[in-house]
Amino acid sequence: MSDKITKKYTSEELAAMSNDELARLGTELDDVTVAYRKQRFPMDNDPEEKRAARSVGLWFLLGAVFAIAFIAVYLFWPWKYKGLGEDGLWLYSLYTPLFGACMGLAILCLGIGAVKFTKKFIPEEISVQRRHDGPSDEVDQKTLVALLNDSWETSTLGRRKVLKGIMGTGAVAAGLALIFPIGGMIKNPWKPKAKGMDVQGDGTLWTTGWTPTEKGKKVYLGRDTGVTAEKHEGGYEATGETYETRGVTRLVRLRPEDLNAGAMETVFPLLEDVVNDHDKYDKNADVYEAHMESIHGSRNSVMLIRLRHSDAKRAIQRKGQEDFHFGDYYAYSKICTHIGCPTSLYEQQTNRILCPCHQSQFDALHYGKPVFGPAARPLPQLPIAVDDEGFLYAKGNFVESVGPAFWERRS
Ligand code: FES
């Protein structure tokens, strides 16, 4: 506060002062000396002022248009991935650049508008202030408000309704453009996956690739062969090469005898429609992408364990899940019930399944129950059986959701 002004103002005195008086007092209290001040347009109805207002308004309008364009691109532009040679690749490839261009231009136009407004309408002023320490007292607070009011009035924005509207529109549109992309992260976890199948959820939280979506359609336990699509010359114009996926089978069906006693293998859901192995192999079938989708599904991996027969005799079944295993074969979700790491380690001697992230241990002989570490729930067990051809398949869905806890999980 100023050293020169020592008078203490009462609340009544402050309330009785006009805004101008308070603003002036404020500058004095803050040791501010206004050395020079000049209104940009001192005369009313100056045509130059109207031109300046139009020019500023135009920049804010452009800012709003680009921000709205950003939202429109987000909502309506074709965004689904297109591979080389596919129809619509050109439009799809513009998706991300358009986001950048629209948002960049919106911010640029709003910025130019703000700079122009300041240069055209805020009074030219040179003020000098001395620094001082300590908290502000009541008089400082009141006068600061008055100074802000004064700035608002001298900026002439208060009486420029059209410009105010355009600036507001630009700011709101830019704000919406920033907020809109968050919408893509929000999903409805209760949206039914398939009608009539009593499946809860759309794949987020409630379901996995093992969740049946069509009545009577089998989901096999798929072994990952590690085979990849081959690169060939003479393909798409753009690169001169292509990947041949026809006849490439990444997941194959498993028979119980494919696994030794005491072994564990990670398996993935293999839908009946995309089986392409053994007697069903067709060199022209194109199932590679469907197999890769299954492998990449974040809740799809399942540990198929073949217990040693002597151990299997000691296994304890969970109530209601007594028939989930097939002989010595047990299938547990690989997703840790602590915070979702893959529980990749099976220790044959102790029949424990270990999660490397925080050292939770689950007992494979005791329906995947946690016996050590932070995990509090058993690994969900997948009910399995063998079909007429001798292949292992899931005879139902998991009876609880896979992975860590969330707000509505019942188990
Ligand atoms: S995620 Fe498995 S113990 Fe933490």
Query: What's the end-to-end separation, in Å?
Result: 64 Å
CATH architecture of the largest domain: 3-layer Sandwich
What is the overall number of helices? 9
Q: Please count the beta strands (DSSP E, at least 2 residues each).
A: 15
Kindly estimate the percentage of residues that lie in beta strands according to DSSP: 15-25%
At the fold tier of CATH, the topology name of the largest domain is Rieske Iron-sulfur Protein
Q: How big is the Rg?
A: 35 Å
SSE sequence, one letter per element: HHEHHHEHHEEEEEHEHEEEEEEE
Class from helix and strand fractions: alpha+beta
Broad shape: elongated
Mean pLDDT: 87
In CATH's first tier, which class of the largest domain applies?
Mainly Beta
Q: Which consecutive residue ranges, at least 5 long each, have pLDDT under 50?
A: none
Main sheet, how many strands, which sense, barrel? 7 strands, antiparallel
How many domains would you count in the coordinates? 3
What would CATH call the homologous superfamily of the largest domain? Rieske [2Fe-2S] iron-sulphur domain
Ligands and ions found: FE2/S2 (inorganic) cluster
- Percent helix range: 25-40%
Pfam families: QcrA_N (PF19297), Rieske (PF00355)
Protein name: Cytochrome bc1 complex Rieske iron-sulfur subunit
Transmembrane segments: 56-77, 89-115, 165-186
Main location: membrane
